[in-house]
Amino acid sequence: MTINPQAQAGPSLPSTNSSSSVDPSPGIPILLLKTRSLPTDAYHTYFASTTAAFDPIFVPVLQHSFNGAALDHLATLLPTLSSQYSGLIFTSQRAVEAFASIIHSADAEAKGKLRELSLPIYTVGPATSRALEALRDDFFPRCEVLGRETGNGEGLAGYILQHHRAKIRILSEKEMESQPQGNSPEPQPLPLLFLVGEQRRDIIPKTLSSPSL
Predict the structure, then answer these.
(1) 74 neighbors 83 (Cβ within 8 angstroms)
(2) What share of residues in the chain are helix, strand, coil (percent, to 5)?
(3) Where are the alpha helices (DSSP H) in the chain?
């Protein structure tokens, strides 16, 4: 295929002595074969801010779509997350985006409940952590995002076991101390809510639900 350089460049502009009237040169185009992550994308931030002034162009090679029924169910859980779950798990930015779409469309009461939420949020990798932290800062500031440095699902599963057990032990001790002597059965921990896509590895649920742990 022959490309006409003049057609690509567009019509020539008249020369001018005023530098302020000349538009800055466009950045060097660089193709990124991925879906742009929201609300921020680390690749876009890096290439658009370098001195070389690249122009990142995202070319999605996979199509992502949300499960409407699952999102509707998740929306009903928002006001009661703290009473039903002891933590949240995210391992992909698509899951974060799905969660964000529910929060943005939630009513004022549900958003108010989220601001009171103080659950640990477990995640793997810096990109997903950044997306969650941006969402956390706006909607559930009392939550702590954990697991950034674990690197993969296996590492995150081990981290959750260690951190969650310690958290449950502390809460159990406090609850047992508040009960009359002899009337304090050991409290059962609430489950963790794992938000995932259709394509995933099962290392985290298998590790956390293993009878040997």
Answers:
(1) no
(2) 45, 10, 40
(3) 5-9, 42-49, 68-77, 81-84, 93-104, 108-115, 126-139, 153-177, 203-208
Higher pLDDT, 101 or 209: 101
Residue 168: the pLDDT is: 65
72: amino acid identity, one letter: D
| Rounded-to-integer distance, Cα 64 and Cα 61, Å | 10
| Contact between 85 and 193 (Cβ < 8 Å) | yes
Q: Which residues pair with 120 in a beta bridge?
A: 144
Sequence-ordered list of residues with C-beta below 8 angstroms from that of 103, at least 6 positions apart, any chain: 78, 111, 114, 135, 139
**pLDDT > 90: what percent of the chain?**
34
Q: Reduce the DSSP state of residue 99 to 3 states and report it.
A: helix
Instruction: Kindly report whether the global pTM for this prediction surpasses the value 0.85.
Output: no
